[in-house]
Amino acid sequence: MLATTQGFVFRTTPYSETSVIAKIFTLHYGMLSFMIKGVRSNKGKNKQNLLQPLSYLDISFYHNSKTEIQYIKELKPAKQWNSIPFDCSKTAIIFFMTELLYKTIREEEANLPLFKHIVTSLSTLDNQTEALANFPISFMLSTTKLLGIEPRNNYNDLRPLFNLNEGCFVTQPSIVENADNILDNNTSLALHQYLS
Q: pTM of the entire structure?
Protein backbone atom coordinates (compact mmCIF):
# COMPACT_ATOMS: atom_id res chain seq x y z
CA MET A 1 0.00 0.00 0.00
CA LEU A 2 1.38 3.41 -0.96
CA ALA A 3 1.50 5.74 2.05
CA THR A 4 2.65 9.28 2.71
CA THR A 5 3.97 10.84 5.90
CA GLN A 6 6.56 13.25 7.20
CA GLY A 7 9.68 12.25 9.07
CA PHE A 8 13.06 13.12 10.52
CA VAL A 9 16.20 11.25 9.47
CA PHE A 10 18.06 9.83 12.46
CA ARG A 11 20.66 7.58 10.86
CA THR A 12 21.68 6.13 7.50
CA THR A 13 23.72 3.00 6.80
CA PRO A 14 25.14 2.13 3.37
CA TYR A 15 23.54 -1.06 2.07
CA SER A 16 25.03 -1.58 -1.36
CA GLU A 17 26.93 0.52 -3.87
CA THR A 18 23.92 2.73 -4.49
CA SER A 19 21.44 2.17 -1.64
CA VAL A 20 21.11 3.01 2.04
CA ILE A 21 18.94 1.93 4.95
CA ALA A 22 17.64 4.94 6.86
CA LYS A 23 16.12 5.09 10.35
CA ILE A 24 13.42 7.75 10.18
CA PHE A 25 11.06 8.92 12.93
CA THR A 26 7.75 9.43 11.12
CA LEU A 27 4.66 11.41 12.02
CA HIS A 28 2.14 8.61 11.47
CA TYR A 29 4.12 5.40 12.04
CA GLY A 30 6.81 6.22 14.62
CA MET A 31 10.32 4.88 14.02
CA LEU A 32 10.71 2.99 10.73
CA SER A 33 13.59 1.59 8.71
CA PHE A 34 13.56 2.43 5.02
CA MET A 35 15.45 1.02 2.06
CA ILE A 36 16.28 3.89 -0.28
CA LYS A 37 17.53 2.56 -3.59
CA GLY A 38 19.81 4.50 -5.91
CA VAL A 39 20.38 7.32 -3.45
CA ARG A 40 24.17 7.05 -3.78
CA SER A 41 24.22 7.05 -7.59
CA ASN A 42 24.18 9.98 -9.98
CA LYS A 43 21.09 8.62 -11.74
CA GLY A 44 18.88 8.10 -8.67
CA LYS A 45 15.94 10.46 -8.22
CA ASN A 46 16.37 10.53 -4.42
CA LYS A 47 19.64 12.23 -3.47
CA GLN A 48 21.77 11.56 -0.42
CA ASN A 49 21.90 15.24 0.56
CA LEU A 50 18.26 14.83 1.66
CA LEU A 51 19.39 12.32 4.30
CA GLN A 52 21.38 14.59 6.61
CA PRO A 53 20.76 14.23 10.37
CA LEU A 54 17.30 15.53 11.32
CA SER A 55 16.39 16.35 7.72
CA TYR A 56 12.66 17.06 7.73
CA LEU A 57 11.12 15.16 4.82
CA ASP A 58 7.88 14.44 3.03
CA ILE A 59 7.98 10.70 2.35
CA SER A 60 6.06 8.55 -0.09
CA PHE A 61 6.66 4.84 0.54
CA TYR A 62 5.29 1.34 0.13
CA HIS A 63 3.97 0.44 3.58
CA ASN A 64 3.97 -3.21 4.56
CA SER A 65 3.33 -3.84 8.26
CA LYS A 66 4.65 -7.41 7.95
CA THR A 67 8.21 -6.38 7.05
CA GLU A 68 10.81 -4.53 9.08
CA ILE A 69 12.12 -2.50 6.15
CA GLN A 70 9.87 -0.26 4.08
CA TYR A 71 10.70 0.90 0.54
CA ILE A 72 10.82 4.58 -0.34
CA LYS A 73 9.18 5.75 -3.53
CA GLU A 74 9.95 9.46 -3.23
CA LEU A 75 11.54 11.92 -0.82
CA LYS A 76 11.37 15.70 -0.77
CA PRO A 77 12.10 18.34 1.86
CA ALA A 78 9.13 19.20 4.06
CA LYS A 79 10.80 22.46 5.07
CA GLN A 80 13.98 24.27 4.07
CA TRP A 81 15.94 25.73 6.99
CA ASN A 82 17.38 29.22 6.56
CA SER A 83 20.40 29.11 8.87
CA ILE A 84 20.91 25.56 10.20
CA PRO A 85 22.79 24.17 7.17
CA PHE A 86 25.12 27.17 7.05
CA ASP A 87 25.99 27.64 10.74
CA CYS A 88 28.61 25.29 12.20
CA SER A 89 27.36 25.79 15.77
CA LYS A 90 23.80 24.91 14.79
CA THR A 91 25.02 21.90 12.81
CA ALA A 92 26.84 20.66 15.92
CA ILE A 93 23.63 21.09 17.93
CA ILE A 94 21.75 19.09 15.27
CA PHE A 95 24.22 16.21 15.73
CA PHE A 96 23.63 16.33 19.49
CA MET A 97 19.84 16.39 19.06
CA THR A 98 19.95 13.51 16.58
CA GLU A 99 22.08 11.34 18.85
CA LEU A 100 19.89 12.08 21.88
CA LEU A 101 16.70 11.24 19.99
CA TYR A 102 18.15 8.16 18.31
CA LYS A 103 19.27 6.69 21.63
CA THR A 104 16.04 7.46 23.51
CA ILE A 105 13.20 6.84 21.04
CA ARG A 106 12.43 3.14 20.84
CA GLU A 107 8.73 3.20 20.15
CA GLU A 108 7.44 2.03 16.83
CA GLU A 109 4.13 3.83 17.10
CA ALA A 110 3.29 7.43 16.33
CA ASN A 111 4.03 10.06 18.98
CA LEU A 112 2.47 13.32 17.78
CA PRO A 113 3.56 15.49 20.78
CA LEU A 114 7.19 14.38 20.37
CA PHE A 115 7.09 14.92 16.61
CA LYS A 116 5.67 18.43 17.06
CA HIS A 117 8.32 19.11 19.72
CA ILE A 118 11.09 18.28 17.23
CA VAL A 119 9.52 20.53 14.56
CA THR A 120 9.16 23.40 17.04
CA SER A 121 12.69 22.95 18.40
CA LEU A 122 14.23 22.97 14.91
CA SER A 123 12.24 26.08 13.95
CA THR A 124 13.42 27.79 17.14
CA LEU A 125 17.03 26.80 16.48
CA ASP A 126 16.81 27.99 12.88
CA ASN A 127 15.57 31.43 13.97
CA GLN A 128 17.79 31.81 17.05
CA THR A 129 20.74 34.17 16.64
CA GLU A 130 22.28 34.17 20.12
CA ALA A 131 22.55 32.13 23.34
CA LEU A 132 23.05 28.88 21.44
CA ALA A 133 25.06 27.38 24.31
CA ASN A 134 21.89 26.80 26.34
CA PHE A 135 19.85 25.33 23.51
CA PRO A 136 21.04 21.68 23.88
CA ILE A 137 20.28 21.69 27.61
CA SER A 138 16.86 23.22 27.06
CA PHE A 139 16.10 20.70 24.30
CA MET A 140 17.26 17.77 26.43
CA LEU A 141 15.17 18.77 29.44
CA SER A 142 12.04 19.47 27.41
CA THR A 143 12.45 16.15 25.59
CA THR A 144 12.69 14.21 28.86
CA LYS A 145 9.23 15.52 29.80
CA LEU A 146 7.75 14.04 26.63
CA LEU A 147 9.55 10.73 27.15
CA GLY A 148 8.35 10.41 30.75
CA ILE A 149 11.84 10.53 32.27
CA GLU A 150 11.91 14.13 33.43
CA PRO A 151 14.25 14.81 36.39
CA ARG A 152 12.34 15.64 39.55
CA ASN A 153 13.08 19.15 40.79
CA ASN A 154 12.98 18.56 44.54
CA TYR A 155 16.08 20.68 45.23
CA ASN A 156 16.41 22.39 48.64
CA ASP A 157 19.02 22.94 51.36
CA LEU A 158 18.50 19.39 52.64
CA ARG A 159 18.75 17.82 49.16
CA PRO A 160 21.48 19.75 47.31
CA LEU A 161 22.91 16.94 45.14
CA PHE A 162 21.41 15.40 42.02
CA ASN A 163 21.44 11.59 41.78
CA LEU A 164 21.60 10.53 38.12
CA ASN A 165 20.29 7.02 38.84
CA GLU A 166 17.28 8.19 40.84
CA GLY A 167 16.54 11.27 38.72
CA CYS A 168 16.08 13.52 41.75
CA PHE A 169 17.96 15.60 44.29
CA VAL A 170 19.23 13.79 47.39
CA THR A 171 21.10 14.39 50.63
CA GLN A 172 24.72 13.29 50.88
CA PRO A 173 25.23 10.00 49.02
CA SER A 174 25.24 6.83 51.08
CA ILE A 175 28.29 4.57 51.21
CA VAL A 176 26.72 2.06 48.80
CA GLU A 177 26.03 4.69 46.11
CA ASN A 178 28.59 5.27 43.41
CA ALA A 179 29.85 8.85 43.69
CA ASP A 180 30.11 9.00 39.88
CA ASN A 181 26.31 9.00 39.76
CA ILE A 182 26.03 12.10 41.97
CA LEU A 183 26.49 15.58 40.53
CA ASP A 184 28.56 18.06 42.55
CA ASN A 185 26.96 21.03 44.32
CA ASN A 186 27.54 23.59 41.55
CA THR A 187 26.31 21.33 38.74
CA SER A 188 23.30 20.26 40.83
CA LEU A 189 22.42 23.92 41.49
CA ALA A 190 22.74 24.71 37.76
CA LEU A 191 20.43 21.79 36.91
CA HIS A 192 17.90 23.02 39.49
CA GLN A 193 17.99 26.48 37.90
CA TYR A 194 17.41 25.00 34.43
CA LEU A 195 14.52 22.90 35.72
CA SER A 196 13.03 25.97 37.38
A: 0.85
Of 90, 91, 118, which Cα lies nearest the Cα of 30?
Answer: 118
The DSSP string of 79-95 is ---SSGGG-HHHHHHHH
Nearest Cα neighbor of 34 from 56, 51, 49, 17 is: 51
pLDDT tens for the chain, 196 residues long, are 899 999 999 999 998 888 899 999 999 999 999 998 877 766 666 677 789 999 999 999 999 888 899 998 889 999 989 999 899 999 999 999 999 999 988 777 889 999 999 999 999 999 998 878 889 999 999 999 998 888 999 999 899 999 988 889 988 766 555 677 888 889 999 999 988 8
Distance separating alpha carbons of residues 107 and 104, to the nearest angstrom: 9
Name the residue among 95, 91, 80, 102 with its Cα closest to residue 33: 102
Torsion of CA 6, 95, 89, 139, to 10 degrees: 70
Half-sphere exposure of 115 (CA within 13 A, CB side): 21
3-class secondary-structure state, position 191: helix
Is-contact 12 22, C-beta < 8 A?
yes
Domains, the chain, ranges and CATH?
2-77 (2.40.50.140), 84-147 (no CATH), 161-195 (no CATH)
